[in-house]
Each structure stands twice: as structure tokens, then as C-alpha cells.
Amino acid sequence: MFDIAHTPVAVTIAHMAELIDTVTAKNHRALGEVTDDITPFHSRAIPNISVHDYLERVAKFVCLENDSLLAVLVYIDRITRAQLHRPSLAPSPFNIHRLVITAI
């Protein structure tokens, strides 16, 4: 069981990164590379840094606690729901880093 109050932030980041990687990989396989409806969140290429390493780097410079990380997941979930109306908003390897930093 995951106890958010007593779990170290590094463990939360690891779980969160695993979940985000799973979602973005499934979206990328299902939707492919978006070329016709690019959003400001899309990068030209998939960043070389993993979501896990990116979150750890952000946590190093910003005071991230478990409650902040949980809020990030809520925001990403809401964006994921918006993909029903605009598929290019689906979290993918091309936009997830920018979506995460925006949510933070």
C-alpha cells in the first residue's frame, strides 16, 4: 500500500515516472507521432532525459513534496481527458516533459 504521508519523495517520483512512462508509451503506440495538430507542448524530438531523471532534476531545484507530485498527476489526468476532443493533447514522449513542468 502506498502511504503518501510517509513515503520518501524519491520513491513517489519512481512510481510516478513508471506510471507516466506507461501512459505515454501506450499513447505513442496508439496515436503515433502527431504531425498535423502540434501544440505548444510538443518538442521537435523526444528529449534525451527520462521522465524519472527529469522529475529528480526538478525536485533537486524545486521543493517538491508528495502532495505536489500528486497534484501533477491530477493535472496530467485532466489533460488526458481533454484528448477526447483534441488527440494531440494526449501525453506522449514528445510533450510529457513540458506537460509535467507546466503542471508543477
Q: Would you give an account of this structure?
A:
The chain has 104 residues and is mainly α. The chain is built from four helices and no strands. The chain is globular and about 45 Å long. It starts with 8 loop residues before the first helix and ends with a helix. The mean pLDDT is 86.
Note the topology.
Blueprint: H1 9-31, H2 51-61, H3 66-82, H4 96-103
Helix pairs in contact: 1-2, 2-4
Task: Quickly describe the structure.
With 104 residues, this protein is an all-alpha fold.
Q: Could you list some keywords that capture this structure?
A:
104 residues; mainly alpha; 4 helices; globular
Q: Structural class of the secondary structure composition?
A: mainly alpha
Computed Rg = 14 Å
Number of strands: 0
Q: What is the element string, with H for helices and E for strands?
A: HHHH
Task: Report how far apart the termini are.
Answer: 25 Å
Spans of at least 5 consecutive residues whose pLDDT stays below 50 are none
Q: What is the arithmetic mean of pLDDT?
A: 86
Helix content: 55-70%
Number of helices: 4
Q: Name the overall outline.
A: globular
Q: Please state roughly what percent of the residues sit in beta strands, choosing from under 5%, 5-15%, 15-25%, 25-35%, 35-45% or over 45%.
A: under 5%
Outline the biggest β-sheet: none
